């Protein structure tokens, strides 16, 4: 495809003016292809919503809770909520300009090209790439935005180069790694997808924040990373997985050695139970669980700490899901939450919070056992020897 025959429209995702602008340009230019900033999942979701169809995919709370994507689920849910809230404030549904581009393309008989990376891959790569400090800072800024009442008076100003640079710099400051994955990588991915389009005349509809980056990669295609690199999951979590195996061993060995050495460990066992179980209980309640779910977290936490393939949050979450009668309806409604109250009242989101809270509490309790129990116990063993 010749770059000269490509026109990129930078939009504000919740702008009424962008919707009209997209339609007018496509109808006037009559391109062979209309490329949109969507992946297949988001495209199908928009079309189903347009037709008033319900999603027929299977849903299992148990599989979701037992998966390794609790953080992915929560962050995606929070970001979706924020976008919906902005859209509600402006009276525009997120994704409306992409749907307008699709409809205009259908009117003139143009082919539709989906050029964005799968959102699940993007979100997982964000989580994998962020340091603990970045995750905490990122989460704090998301949560802080819940309580901000600032209104956007002129959404069109969001498309100006000066405003975009300020927004991007702010995002980059919060989390350089998240910015790289969410913006830089997707700019490169979408540019590569555009270069693969064989037709001569193409109009691309993307968020205004991506336009400059895409144009850069189109002019410097040799700097675009290969698809295999942009679509893979990073394996830096292997260290965490090793810890999940090593920690139980480090906890069990001192107890075994103390027992063999004749050291009285009855008090240490009770302290271990109350540290791990107590913090799992507190974490569960702090996440908004019901009392029964928190009690389940307390009871199972000491056992799950010693088993690398189990987590206290799973059991607390399953109890919470049972008590809240979570259904596929909750999953459907999650993307429609337009206020923090609606998000908080969503049963599935609440269950995921309980899972995360119980697991976090249990982890805190586990690491506190090292200075409180393990090190003193080692001292007793050496003294007995």
Automatic annotation (TrEMBL):
Keywords associated with the record: Membrane, Transmembrane, Transmembrane helix
TM region(s), chain numbering: 243-263, 269-287, 294-316, 348-370
Pfam families xref list: TraB_PrgY_gumN
Keyword Chaperone: no
InterPro entries referenced in this protein's UniProt entry, alphabetically: TraB/PrgY/GumN_fam, TraB_bac, TraB_PrgY-like
The keyword Oxidoreductase appears for this protein: no
Signal sequence, start to end: none
PANTHER family attached to this UniProt entry: PHEROMONE SHUTDOWN PROTEIN, TRAB DOMAIN-CONTAINING PROTEIN
Name of the protein in its database record: TraB family protein
């Amino acid at each position: 495809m010749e770059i000269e025959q490509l026109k990129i429209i930078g939009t504000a995702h919740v702008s009424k003016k962008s919707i009209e602008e997209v339609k007018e340009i496509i109808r006037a230019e009559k391109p062979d292809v209309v490329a949109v900033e969507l992946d297949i999942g988001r495209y199908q979701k928009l079309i189903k919503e347009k037709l008033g169809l319900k999603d027929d995919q299977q849903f299992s709370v148990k599989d979701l809770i037992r998966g390794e994507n609790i953080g992915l689920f929560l962050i995606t849910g929070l970001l979706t909520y924020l976008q919906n809230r902005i859209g509600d404030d402006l009276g525009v549904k997120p994704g409306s300009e992409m749907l307008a581009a699709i409809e205009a393309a259908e009117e003139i008989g143009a082919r539709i090209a989906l050029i964005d990376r799968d959102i699940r891959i993007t979100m997982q790569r964000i989580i994998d790439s962020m340091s603990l400090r970045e995750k905490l800072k990122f989460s704090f800024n998301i949560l802080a935005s819940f309580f901000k009442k600032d209104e956007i008076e002129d959404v069109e100003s969001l498309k100006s180069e000066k405003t975009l640079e300020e927004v991007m710099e702010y995002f980059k400051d919060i989390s350089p790694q998240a910015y790289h994955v969410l913006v830089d990588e997707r700019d490169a991915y979408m540019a590569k997808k555009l270069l693969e389009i064989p037709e001569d005349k193409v109009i691309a509809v993307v968020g205004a924040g991506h336009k400059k980056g895409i144009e850069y990669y189109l002019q410097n295609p040799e700097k675009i990373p290969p698809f295999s690199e942009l679509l893979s999951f990073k394996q830096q979590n292997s260290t965490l997985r090793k810890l999940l195996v090593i920690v139980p061993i480090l906890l069990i060995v001192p107890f075994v050695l103390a027992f063999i050495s004749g050291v009285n460990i009855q008090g240490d066992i009770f302290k271990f139970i109350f540290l791990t179980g107590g913090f799992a209980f507190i974490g569960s309640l702090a996440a908004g669980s019901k009392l029964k779910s928190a009690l389940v977290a307390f009871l199972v936490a000491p056992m799950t700490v010693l088993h690398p393939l189990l987590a206290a949050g799973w059991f607390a979450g399953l109890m919470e899901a049972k008590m809240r009668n979570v259904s596929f309806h909750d999953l459907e409604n999650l993307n429609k939450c337009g206020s923090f109250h609606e998000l908080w009242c969503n049963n599935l989101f609440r269950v995921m919070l309980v899972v995360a809270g119980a697991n976090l509490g249990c982890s805190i309790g586990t690491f506190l056992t090292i200075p409180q129990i393990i090190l003193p116990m080692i001292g007793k063993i050496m003294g007995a020897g």
